[in-house]
Amino acid sequence: MEMNQDQLITFLIVVIIISLAALFYAWTLYQSVKSEEIENDRLKELSSFIYEGAMAFLKREYKIIVLFIVAVAIILASLGVIPSLNGIDGVGINGAICFVVGTLCSGIAGFIGMKAATAANARVTQGANTKGMGKALHIAFNGGSVLGLCVVGFGLLGLASMFLLFIFVLKDIHAAIPVVAGYSLGCSFIALFARVGGGIYTKAADVGADLVGKVEAGIPEDDPRNPAVIADNVGDNVGDIAGMGSDLCESYVGALVSAVSLGLVVSVGGKDASLQAAIFPFIIAALGIIASIAGQSFIRVRSWNNPQRALSVATYVATGFVLVGSFAASSMIFHTLHPFLSVLSGLVVGVLIGKIAEYYTSDEHHHVKEIADQSLTGHATNIISGFSIGMKSTMLTVLLLAAGIVFSYLFFGMYGIALGAVGMLSTTGITVSVDAYGPIADNAGGIAEMANLDEKVRAITDRLDSVGNTTAAVGKGFCIGSAAFTALAMIVAYAQAAGLDSISLLEPGVIVGLMIGAMLPYFFTALTIRSVGTAANHMIDEVRRQFKEDPGIMAGTSKPDYAQCVDISTRAALREMIIPGLIAVCSPVIIGLLLGTKGLGGMLLGALLSAIMLAVFMANAGGAWDNAKKYIEGGNCGGKGSEAHKAAVTGDTVGDPFKDTAGPAMDILIKLMSVISLILAPVLLQLTPILNFLFY
């Protein structure tokens, strides 16, 4: 249909209303979780320890991030004052406003999601104790759904509101689009520090708790005598709730921004269709919110005894709703199904990447069993097997991503690739809900163990947790796939903004950019893994000290000092996240100034390819090592306490920073560098590369 700017504004207002409805529904779910009474005083105490630790970390982390936010906002605003840069969209006070609003929306979404998760954990345990599987599943899923709805609600609300505001301020949709890229930068900024800081926190606690508690002291996981056990449970929330939510919020917003940016030059049948191309991604996102609410409601209409089936059905319901809605929207707005087919490509790739991750990390398949078998011959063979399987898993994932990119492009050009990313992320609301359910169930199991509840309670929470491990693996695959699509669309949008029709691989500057870009993910990975090791060493020393100085801890006559371990993880995570964060933010600026727009384009492509491989390898290797350990603990290959189990614990310990710190950080690294480059593109066009005389 023909569309004018007034109709576009009307659509944006409807999108804002739908976003507000999602946030209202999230509030009702949060109240539903809070209304569940915790009758056991020990459960209340343990839940309060986890809540206080998580909130303390998040508040201290946000205080540090605020300093960076202020600095970046000042830089963006200052760029607009430079005479040669006046009138350049995306920099100046407008871009700074969008940036700050993006950080607020992403940060608030993570904060509320954390509050809901820490409120739900003990209530899940209580539900399992008094009413069984069905009740426990409902509470866990309600808690996770709060985060899912907050991510899409705040993400879409902020972006649509900023877009609407600057259409009115600048009087031109084409001028407003580059400005809202600042909003995406704000979301990326929060995601970087939340994912990296949260990942360092959770793995420092996890590694310390496992190596001293399970291996040296021989006590079970989540044993209340382990001083690091509360820090470990706090880490599940700061890494897999706040961090994961910020990660997908960034992808979600980034996909929308890149699609709207690329829509500037879209034509259909020889007629300008930029207005239709600008609003279509917002419509798909709004449909995704409605679909997520429908999928979440589907779980609540009955009691489920099979949690895996319940979560799968909810995901399929949401996906089906988006497909039907996007089919209708494509026909109505463009009078062609090409946009729908691009969205379909992204959705299919997203689902299949999750299945590939499950194939390589689930103990129902032979890869995990192979690692368990290799553990029989020692620690080294366990590590070798895990590395091999992680590397092997890159092939199917990359081939699938390549196929998705090709089909999306064939249907609607470069704009089609961006629509593929939007399609993949359209069900973010339900995907995050299902993923966030996992840490809540994990916490519930830990609380049941620490409270010494009946074995039947732990059996229910273990079953919920085992499903959560699968959803976490699928969620990581989804994050990787969406990051690849989103970053590629961002790079294309950058090339468009920088006036690049092509990048020649025969130019030395481009080759240098490619090499530096390919190196950066490895260097970033080295820093984050080293940070986990450094923080874990402090944790191990503290746990050993407490065991040595207070024998009553192991005897059960005195309580360990949980707070000290929480503080160690907090301080280490906040200290260690700064340098990786600065590298991610500064690299595009430095390379852009030295090598120009072409060299920066080469760097982005090199980083994208390198980061995808590393992210897939680390996520799947880490997941396979983890589940191989659980497979042995289930009574296979000698069971708990055997030599094979000790080797599997070593593999799981190596895999922890792979799958929960460095791997997820790759997704954010490539998206953050891409959006910074998109904002810098018009600035770099005004400058001559410092090394221009050498390379061009």
Describe this structure as you would to a colleague.
This protein has helices at residues 5-34, 41-79, 93-130, 133-170, 173-179, 181-216, 229-262, 274-300, 307-334, 338-361, 366-375, 379-425, 428-450, 455-497, 508-549, 552-555, 562-576, 578-633, 643-684, 692-695, and strands at 267-268, 271-272. The protein has 20 helices and two strands. It is an all-alpha fold and 696 residues long. A hairpin with a 2-residue loop joins strand 1 and strand 2 (271-272). Helices cover 84% and strands 1% of the residues. A two-stranded antiparallel ribbon has the order 1-2.
Order of helices and strands: HHHHHHHEEHHHHHHHHHHHHH
SS strand fraction: under 5%
Number of strands: 2
Strand order of the largest sheet: 1-2
- Count of helix runs: 20
| Oligomeric composition of the shown chains | single chain
Radius of gyration of CA atoms, rounded to a whole number:
24 Å
Poorly predicted sequence stretches spanning 5 or more consecutive residues: none
Tell me the helix content: over 70%
What secondary-structure arrangement, pairings included, does this model have?
Blueprint lengths: L4 H30 L6 H39 L13 H38 L2 H38 L2 H7 L1 H36 L12 H34 L4 E2 L2 E2 L1 H27 L6 H28 L3 H24 L4 H10 L3 H47 L2 H23 L4 H43 L10 H42 L2 H4 L6 H15 L1 H56 L9 H42 L7 H4 L1
Antiparallel strand pairs: 1-2
Concise summary:
It contains 20 helices and 2 strands.
